[in-house]
Design a protein that fits this description.
The structure is a single chain. The protein has 408 residues and is mainly α. The chain has a single domain, classed as Growth Hormone, Chain: A (Up-down Bundle), CATH 1.20.1250.20. It contains 18 helices and no strands. α1 runs antiparallel to α10 and α13 crosses α16. The chain is globular and about 55 Å long. The two termini are 30 Å apart.
């Protein structure tokens, strides 16, 4: 091998390594979303929160994405995807620090909303960045890793968060996450290539045109709505698991471990979807399989009266097979975007609909439980309504794209 081959090989692999690092950055953002569930008992006691109020605290982080998903995507097209990620990390670090030290229930809620904007600014541009960095023949596999950023981040915070909370208060957890996010910001500056300079000779679409093109695509709407329906039910079930276990007398550390195992199982589905898509399995079939399994497993976990061990297995399968859905949607979002210029705005609209689902899901499930007198057995009816609607939309995607093959 010529002496210069190894440096050239390392240089060629640098963009792929940067893409893999961006998965870690996404995991860091996910830590901020999921830091509330293990801390929820402390927050409920300190601020005297009821069940529905706790549901809104879980979902408040989605307020930014609920309102600003597409607008932030449009701005990212102008300021640059990497700059958008850096700005999001800065917002997360600042909001987490202020939320910890300005000790007020209302301020915690407001800074959770600010963190939602930061999470969106981090998570929304990364799929388009990965598409820019990774060769097309490796895209679906790397997107399989990206699809697992949320469950892997959830596992990390549920395990580490429960341990940290056993040593200190929720303010300590918030502060440590702020420091970790700042480290990610500095590493992003070093490892991720700068945004390319605009091509002066190529006319740029106006922001209004990009928005019209994105929102004028029926395929984009179908993918985005399914994402919202999936995310709402997954957020509700996983977010309330520590509370459900606490009501059953299971201690905080054990509840955190069980919830972490369930959340982590989602990554198995994410990675499996990447491999299946790479081998040519139709995306809409994976969506139907994942959502139908979620209906069955939610009924088994909450409505079938299974013993504790059976309930745990059912929730585990709910998360694991459901993990087929997000990776498939990310790949379909990039594949079905109306044009390469609308890749990030398509992901932005998907994130906005996902935020809507995650904002509505936990309070809706909490409302159903309250209407049932505090009995969690009717949880499955709420989640099944989300999944059933998603199946109908997935079949519509299949009818519209039957001859299409996923990006490999």
């Amino acid at each position: 091998m010529p002496p210069h081959a190894a440096p050239e090989s390392r240089a060629a692999d640098a963009p792929v390594r940067a893409a893999l690092f961006l998965v870690l950055v996404g995991m860091c953002a996910a830590l901020h979303i999921w830091k509330v569930p293990p801390a929820l008992p402390q927050l409920q006691a300190e601020f005297r929160l009821g069940l529905v109020q706790s549901g809104f605290l879980l979902s408040a982080v989605q307020l930014g994405g609920l309102v600003l998903g597409l607008p932030i995507a449009l701005v990212a097209e102008r300021v640059g995807l990497r700059r958008c990620v850096l700005s999001g990390l800065a917002i997360l670090a600042t909001a987490s620090t202020l939320g910890a030290w300005l000790d007020s229930g209302l301020l915690v809620l407001l800074f959770r909303a600010a963190e939602g904007c930061g999470v969106l600014m981090v998570a929304m541009p990364i799929p388009a960045l990965i598409r820019r960095l990774v060769p097309p023949d490796r895209l679906s596999r790397v997107m399989g890793l990206w699809g697992s950023y949320m469950p892997l981040g959830t596992v990390a915070i549920l395990l580490a968060g429960s341990w940290i909370l056993s040593l200190g208060t929720w303010q300590l957890l918030w502060s440590l996450l702020a420091a970790l996010t700042l480290c990610c910001l500095l590493l992003t500056l070093r490892l991720v290539p700068p945004d390319p300079a605009p091509d002066a000779g190529r006319p740029r679409d106006s922001l209004a045109r990009l928005a019209r093109t994105t929102l004028g695509s029926a395929n984009v709407w179908l993918v985005a709505l399914i994402f919202g329906l999936y995310a709402g039910q997954w957020m509700a079930v996983i977010g309330f698991l520590p509370t459900i276990y606490a009501a059953q007398g299971i201690g905080g550390a054990t509840a955190g471990l069980l919830t972490a195992i369930v959340a982590g199982a989602n990554a198995i589905g994410n990675l499996s979807a990447g491999r299946l898509l790479h081998h040519g399995v139709a995306g809409w079939r994976l969506l139907v399989a994942g959502l139908a399994t979620m209906i069955l497993c939610a009924w088994a976990a909450f409505g079938a009266g299974l013993p504790a061990q059976g309930q745990f297995v059912a929730v585990l399968m709910f998360s694991m097979v459901g993990g087929l859905v997000p990776t498939t949607l990310f790949v379909l979002g990039l594949t079905l975007a109306p044009s390469p210029q609308t890749a990030s705005t398509t992901i932005g609209w998907m994130q906005q609909c996902s935020s809507l689902g995650q904002f509505v899901g936990p309070p809706f499930v909490a409302w159903v439980v309250n209407r049932a007198g505090g009995d969690w057995q009717w949880t499955w009816t709420a989640t099944a309504s989300f999944a059933s609607a998603g199946i109908v939309l997935a079949i519509m995607i299949g009818l519209r794209t039957r001859s299409a093959t996923p990006t490999r």
